Amino acid sequence: MRGALPREAPTYVGHVVGASFGLVFVIVNSSPMGTALRGIVCALAGAAFAVVLAAFVRTVGAERRSEARGRPVGFDRRYWLIVAVEVVALFGGLAVLTRIEPAAALGWIALVVGVHFIPLSRLWPEGRRQILAIGVAMTVLGLAGLVLAFTTQDQPLVALVSGVGSGTVLLGTALTSALRTWGILSPT
Questions:
Q1: What's the CA gap between 148 and 94, in Å, rounded?
Q2: What is the DSSP letter of 11?
Q3: How many of the other CB atoms lie within 10 Å of CB of 12?
Q4: Measuring CA to CA, which residue among 134, 141, 135 is closest to residue 108?
Q5: Is residue 9 within 8 Å of residue 184, measured between CB atoms?
């Protein structure tokens, strides 16, 4: 069928959400790179986001043409409980950490966001490995940022490690899925 997706290679709304947050992480935290390098990095991040968005549009179009609808994404009570715990941990931790060491804020954000992906991976079996990988990578980047903040107080370095690093993880995993949708990478 013309326009059909490669077997089992859709780009979901979750990929667009992840890519959006990844783009924001990169843009907001890349200023320590200097103007020229930051411009290149932000342009690449924007291009990656555009590819993810286009793949999502392609997925939606292919589903409409085939009238094949996947199971609805489960934003049930468990999801909202995970998000609620994340919000409390995020803002509660920031209220404490910013008084102790302001450079630790971004490390904390990456850590909490990373940890929240771990229980989320249990909610969506079709993306479990990818979601878990994001969670582990962002947790490690968040912990690294916290260690750097408390040992060096170097906020620009924390921005690169926990901010740009986390953005790269989010954009990279979403881009990988999008490239599978486009048939550039083989489905897993």
A1: 16
A2: -
A3: 20
A4: 141
A5: no
Alpha-carbon distance of 34 to 134, in angstroms, equals: 27
The closest alpha carbon to 31, from 20, 22, 39, belongs to 39
Cα(59)–Cα(51) distance, integer angstroms: 12
Contact status, residue 155 vs residue 149, Cβ threshold 8 Å: yes
Alpha-carbon torsion 152, 157, 158, 161, what sign? negative
Structural tokens at position 176: 């990988």
Element counts in the chain: helices (H) and strands (E): 7, 0
**Model confidence, pTM:** 0.90
pLDDT, tens digit (0-9, with 9 covering 90-100), for 66-88: 665 555 556 789 999 999 999 99
